[in-house]
Design brief:
Elements (H helix, E strand, L loop, with lengths): L1 H27 L13 H14 L2 H62 L1 H13 L15 E5 L7 H10 L4 E5 L6 H4 L1 H12 L1
Parallel strand pairs: 1-2
């Protein structure tokens, strides 16, 4: 062990000696006329520096490589940590938004149920009977001549977007608007969005 240490110590001393010689050569070199640049033998200097580098002990070169790898690892780890934090923040925001959406949906559902209960079973039966017995006026849609705005909820399961789109296409000059994330009762589920569309159309 002592022999290895002495060998490495000797290599370091040799490298230091060579480097000091390079410094002395540059420091004592004559300058180029009309210039402050020293007159040196580039090949000689490069050869001495290469030899000094070769005399460095292998452990020192490995240590330098390890330091470089450590720095690269730290940079990579920090980048990955930042990505994880960004993903966590985005997930947290989505969870909060989803929670708010659920609360809002529950509130609207409760409101609709309250309205249905207040109307009573008899009124519900009359309404459903009227819907079942009503005539199909789809063939008359092309005869509409007044400005027409057709609004449908993106998540409408009773009258889906494709069905409403087909209806709007049969009305001359009709304008179709689809409210994102809205169901069948747009005025109750998305009153603000519906109001914006109606105001824009009426203006």
């Amino acid at each position: 062990m002592t022999g290895v240490f002495d060998s490495e110590h000797h290599s370091i001393n040799d490298s230091e000696t060579l480097l000091r010689r390079v410094i002395d050569i540059i420091a004592t070199a004559r300058t180029i006329p009309l210039s402050s640049s020293p007159m040196i033998n580039r090949d000689e200097i490069l050869e001495m520096l290469e030899e000094a580098l070769n005399r460095l002990p292998e452990e020192l070169r490995q240590a330098r490589r390890m330091l470089k790898e450590r720095d690269e690892f730290v940079i990579k780890t920090r980048r990955e940590a930042d990505d994880i934090l960004d993903a966590s923040r985005a997930q947290a925001e989505r969870m909060v938004q989803r929670t708010e959406v659920v609360k809002s949906a529950e509130h609207r559902a409760r409101h609709i149920i309250d309205m249905a209960e207040a109307t009573g079973p008899a009124a519900f039966i009359r309404q459903e009977t009227a819907l079942l017995e009503r005539e199909d006026y789809t063939p008359l849609l092309p005869e509409i001549r007044c400005p027409t705005l057709v609004i449908v909820g993106e998540a409408d399961a009773i009258t889906p977007v494709l069905m409403v789109q087909a209806m709007a296409q049969q009305i001359p000059g009709a304008r179709l608007e689809v409210i994102a994330g809205c169901g069948h009762l747009s005025t109750l589920e998305c009153p603000a969005e519906t109001t914006v569309l109606l105001k824009a159309w009426l203006s």
